[in-house]
Input
Amino acid sequence: MKEKIKNKINSWTRPSRKWTDIFIISVALSLGILLAGDYIMYLLFKPVPFDKVFSPVSDSPSVLEFLSMYVMFLGIWIIALPICAIFKSNRPILKQLAPNKNGNNFKGLLAGLLLGFGLNGICILISVLTGKIHLYFNEFNPLLFFVFLFFVAVQSGAEELVTRVYLYQKLRRRYKSPLVAIIGNSLLFAALHLFNEGITVISVIEIFVSGILFSLLIHYYDSAWGAIMIHTAWNFTQNIVFGLPNSGMVSEYSLFKLEAASAENGLFYNVGFGVEGSVGSLILYIITIGIIIYINRGKGEKNDVWANYQNA
Output
């Protein structure tokens, strides 16, 4: 009986597996990194008022408060990178952030940015043309605009670091099927947004599907940079460029502003959650996933990090 159980485990796990890669444990460790990141930033900023540190950027308390939400994600980088570097078994995970000829290069960065902006732009354009939302120019503050761009990248990158790099690779190390890593990290990604303001069933599904799309950039293109950039472009376009809700949250500063009173639910826009809460956005993501899978049919995984590891 014991031998049968062992054979069964071996049939769907890999020789490189670690006990810390078990699904539940991997998810728990990922959540631990997120919580530890929040806590360390709280400790760092507690003795130094945030508004004093960033006063050269803006004198608006509400703008600085919103900016602080993004800055807090620095803590995840501070925690996650050493965890990957200190433990020898985790170092191959860290290498997924290093430049490579596959997708961690300028081409990968550009593709991610264009894909994120393009998908978002389609939703916003159609919503404007159909009269579901009305936008007007607000202001262009170059310093504030690019500071937000940097910290939106920090925030988006932190989420990608935990889900599409750390958790993805831990699950990939243990389980033979890449679907476990792709679906597993996407489930956590969706769960992280469950308590956002204005959350709906459609928006949870859309965030889960977006996690699958981002994961395919890892699977087919070995491009963590691309995943970070598509995530950054998506968030930045909604919040800072067009002033729309991003996962239910609205920035106090944006290039354009939304006439919130006249906004209506539509195929590509949800009043409470923004573009991410729309059926149209979900359809666009599914179509994009289908195109990527079709383009890469028969190619398989671009870089199996654990193929030659025998550390069970």
Remarks:
- The chain has a mean pLDDT of 93.
